[in-house]
Amino acid sequence: MKKFLLLTILTLILTACGDLGIVTAGPNPFNITPSLPPHINTSTPIIIYPTTSATLPPPPPLTASWTPSLTPTIALTSIPSDTPVIAPTNTFTPLPPPTITFTPLPLAITWAGCNTSIDITHSMGEVTNAYATVVNRTGLNLTNVCATLTATDEGRPHPDKTRCVPALPSGFQITWKLTVDTTSNVPSVLQAAVTSNEGLTASAPGQTCTDLGTNRPTDNVVGVVIAIP
């Protein structure tokens, strides 16, 4: 701004000098006396820029306000589709293999014949001899297998009424001669039973000696453990 004012004043002075027709001679280059710069009396204008002073009112307090917005509710309606609905099929699940539990068959005892005789050795009169065959098809090797003969008219216990074998393997059999003290001329109903240490038992149905006949196995078979034919 100051440069602008100075240039304006200098322009006015030079213009005024031109109008007065003042011709100045050039100074002697050999005699130059320094002179003071001319004194310019001019008034420097004072430019005052108007300013505006305003007092702003305090801002209004901010109060949070919430205006609920209305959200339209859209009802969903199922649209029928032509796509077929495939029902789930049953999935095949293989069953576990069955558990095979081995159940041994019971022992079998059958009649092989019967006869009567007199037992003088044991001071007995009439005795009845019955032949019973014990068969082991249980799949187990049985131990301490014993067969016992009884009669409905039995007297004193005969030493041979019970016979035992230490072992009877599976697939084998044995035929015993069992004897009981019976009453003469009285029909005797006989019964036979077999037991083992493994808890397996068997019994033969009651029979009279006349029903069993008089046939008996050969001596080489009686009391011998042999394979089942």
Strand order across the largest sheet: 1-2-5-8
What's the CATH architecture name of the domain at 122-221? Answer: Sandwich
Query: What is the CATH homology-level superfamily of the domain at 122-221?
Result: Immunoglobulins
How far do the termini sit from each other?
146 Å
Which blocks of ≥5 consecutive residues have pLDDT under 50?
19-25
Count, helices: 2
Rg for CA atoms: 73 Å
Q: Would you tell me the overall average pLDDT?
A: 77
Q: H/E order of the elements?
A: HEEEEEEEHE
Topology overview:
Blueprint: H1 2-20, E1 108-118, E2 126-136, E3 142-151, E4 162-168, E5 172-181, E6 189-195, E7 202-208, H2 209-212, E8 226-227
Antiparallel strand pairs: 1-2, 2-5, 3-4, 3-6, 5-8, 6-7
Question: What do these coordinates show?
Answer:
The strands form two sheets. A four-stranded antiparallel sheet has the order 1-2-5-8. It is built from two helices and eight strands, in the order H-E-E-E-E-E-E-E-H-E. The model is unreliable at 19-25 (pLDDT under 50). The protein has helices at 2-20, 209-212; strands at residues 108-118, 126-136, 142-151, 162-168, 172-181, 189-195, 202-208, 226-227. It is mainly beta. The radius of gyration is 73 Å and the shape is rod-shaped.
Question: Tags for this entry?
Answer:
four-stranded antiparallel β-sheet, mainly beta, 8 strands, Immunoglobulin-like
Quick recap:
This protein is mostly beta strands and 229 residues long. It is built from two helices and eight strands; from the N terminus they run αβββββββαβ.
